[in-house]
Amino acid sequence: MPSIDHSVLTWILLLPAFGAVVAALLPNRGKLVQSWALLISLATFGLTLHLPSHFDYNHSGFQFEINRLWIVSPPIRYHLGIDGLSMWLVVLTGFLAPIGVLASWRAIDTRVNEFYSLFLLQQTAMFGVFLALDLMVYYAFWELTLVPMAILIAMFGRDPGSRNSSRAAIKFFLYTFIPSALFLVGILALYARTGTFDYVELKALLTQNPGLFTPSAMWVISLSFLVAFAVKIPVFPLHGWLGDVFSEAPSAMAMVVAGKLGLYSLIRFHLGLFPFESRRVAHWMIMLAVLGILYGALVALAQNDLKRLLAFGTISSLSFCTLGIYTFAINGLDGAVFHVLSESITGGALLVLLGLMYERYGTYEIERYGGLAARTPRLATLFLVTVLALIGLPLLNGFVGEFLTLSSGFATSHLWGALGTIGVILSAAYMLWTMQRVFYGPESPLVHRLPARDLAAREHLALWPMAILMVIMGVFSPYWIRAIDRGVHALSDAPASTHPATAALLPGQPHDGEAQ
Amino acid sequence: MQLTRILPEVILTIAGVLIMLVDPLLPRTASRKSVGWFSVLAMLAAFAASAWQLHLTPGTAYFGVVQTDAFSVFFHLLICGTVLIALLAAIDSVRPETRDMGEYFALILFGTVGMLLMTSAVELLLVFVGLEISSISTYILAGFRRRTGKSPEAAIKYFLLGSFATAFFLYGIALTFGATGTTRIAAIAAALPHTTTPILAWTAIALILVGLGFKVSAAPFHVWTPDVYEGAPSPVVALMSTAPKAAAFAVLLRIFYGAYPSIQQHWWGLFWVLAVVSMTVGNLAALRQQSVKRMLAYSSIAHAGYLLVAFTSFSPQGVAAASFYVLCYVAMNVGIFAVVSHVGGYDDHLWSITDYRGLGYRSPVLAGAMAFFLLSLIGIPFTGGFFAKFYVFSAALQQRMFGLAIIGLINSGIAAFYYLRLLTALYSKPADGSPVLAVPRMSLTLGFAILLAASATLLLGIVPRSSLDLAQRGASTFFTGAAPAQPVASASPALRSDQP
User: Fold this and answer.
1) Which of A87, A372, B6, B355 could form a disulfide with B350 if both were Cys (CB 3.0 to 4.6 A apart)?
2) A132 is a domain residue
3) B492, part of any domain
4) Digit-coded pLDDT (tens) for B226-277
5) Residues of A whose CB is below 8 A from B402
6) How many whole angstroms separate alpha carbon B237 and alpha carbon B243?
7) Is B489's CB within 8 Å of A205's CB?
């Protein structure tokens, strides 16, 4: 392999951190800081694109690995690597960063040094979570993801510096921090018996020596992992922080916070390290997921605030992923990971759109809008595309994930699968109803009074890549699933060759060829 | 040559005496900053001398009352470094009209001599002498700004309660002598298993623990801490919340692991209780504080609790974890108190969390530094505070103390709340109507002091290797011959290659 393959992950990890330090020191003149942040995030995105183009699809282990000893005792290793599960998530993180910068270009006009510095730091933290294969390094980045986010919410909340923002920041931090403390106990308990933090070694040890821990110890440790991840996703009863964060955080930051980190960690560590324990909680998790789908959708129907509506819609949408994961079917897992990718893109696009509307009209209240489509047709078009993707219209990206997760959910349990499907109908209801109230009908006084500006060039630049991706991901989903399949295959129950649903939907999957 | 064994102490004593001699000869109106710089130089020399001591073969001197080993050098470096930062932070708080600043610096130097002696002494009476030297200097320093607010009250309170505590400590020494017939630490360890009056030894442990528990402000011996921290001048608090505590922790380790390892089953439970009570009381009380200094005082009680967790795991990892925790604790605390003393002003008129609202906009560098120290106190990764907690709790878990680890980590979750309250206040708008309080420009020396503390905190969080190695070498002095505990199963060597 060429030499860049060994260091590319380190570069991806360190470039935003370096950018963050420089962004903090740059003079605040013109759009200098913004341009710098854009440059760095584009460069990082470019680096992440190296991964899919050099990814070896015939290899199911970790690739682009780097493994150095960091601290001798206890043995913490700087061990990075990606597989099919994490690769597209890394690329996605890289893809969303420049869009986040473009979306905040005008929205953030004070204290830009702080904002972009923390924004880039958040990038490093998220890359670290996806790349780290040493549990301690992973945990370090996992905790680090909280810090820039919490400070940014406090600094740039909807009413910056108000008590509400502080409260939302603290709530967000503690919600994740306290379960994470127990999660750390779990990691340390694993270490105390096995003497390693390395994911690969740990997984091998746990499978080879089933007697290493008593069943009840394993059970408790796996729960400490599960709860920490479930809060971060968030899974239904643990979602209390998401609404506040969505409504307070700057759009660019809210884009990155939900879903990905928790769901990735769930698949990688809960399913990966505790195959037996995770199957024991499966039917509970499926139940919670379906409850989350329905609850999120129903609460979203009742919202009058666009951002809170999106927050509850996100809870509902992410619960499809949880559902898919705990069916342990290959198409469920594929669908879950694919749905994380598409949800991040569509949800991100919607957040950017809402941010643009807020820039123009200064409110997120649905009732104050109306008849916007006539004034800003391009904005309305993009909004419609996004909404259709979000509610799972076929040929757009949302459909693939929902179909795969629901079909495998139905195979596992008819009742819960059927109930989950109601969520799809509900999501169409709340999204289309919102669309209708905001964009159609008579012009509201607010829309009538203020001058309408349709999308500017910079805004087009931020939105079109996402819109195009929604279509491409909807049509050519096997391109993504091919890699994901490699990553999650070992975690599923299914034998290698027979996946009727997947095969029907996605002809020409690589493992079909192998089976013949 | 025996003098090399106490070289840092000698350097500081000579410097302190020189200051006391020269200070009256300086013109009364002359600035005493030069005295401050002289003491900085002396402290640097002491730091270098301690580092040099590392190359000596470990051993005792002066009839076996002082010992230089990796453990003593670790704490020497730690204490000298902390005092150095505290001195740098204090130099510019010297006001031209105060004439007794010469004494101020001399007292800091003498106090440091006491602390250094505490860490290298292996004779309980010398430990006591060191403790007294350092305590008396801190009592005086606590009352130094005698015309401002609560400083005299704090000093008296500190002095009265502190004297009680040292009396307890002395009683403990006396009873130890009664049980074993000696006050040398190594001799006590040898004589203890054969003692005919174990009850004396048990009482001695309890008394010594009370005395030192006061010095490290572990609950329930903590009541002085918030009042004294609140009343004493902030630059002094930066000093007395760090270096003397570090020395007291070193003494705790030296006495309990050096002299009393054979009756470990009797003191193990005491530390368990002390740790849990300190963490819980400190954190719960800190939740309710409005004053930043009081909040940090309670937080330091909680940190003492985390540290005591390490004491309960009777292992080299535990001692190394405790030493490393002390190091991280002093780095972040001296830093945050340096910030607080500058923001608060000479008479601490900006004291409440509300006063800190909007600091992030008025002085972004100061607020940034403070935010960083707060994150380290919370225990966020890539700061010293994270690794400190990590080592302590992993040492506890290796001894299968799940309950203690869970209590501790839940506590750290509670603690995050009050640190975050201050952290978000830094970046909030000032309350409506309240005037924007001006913070004077930070001087270069203070900035350098804060930078030193911040980079120490950061480096301990990213490359803890070298300091941890030294801490582990220090810890191994208590466990000669004992093999380090091995995990039950270890991975096959094939998996452990350094290259993929």
Assistant:
1) B355
2) no
3) no
4) 999 988 888 889 998 999 999 999 999 999 998 888 888 888 889 999 999 9
5) 185, 189
6) 10
7) yes
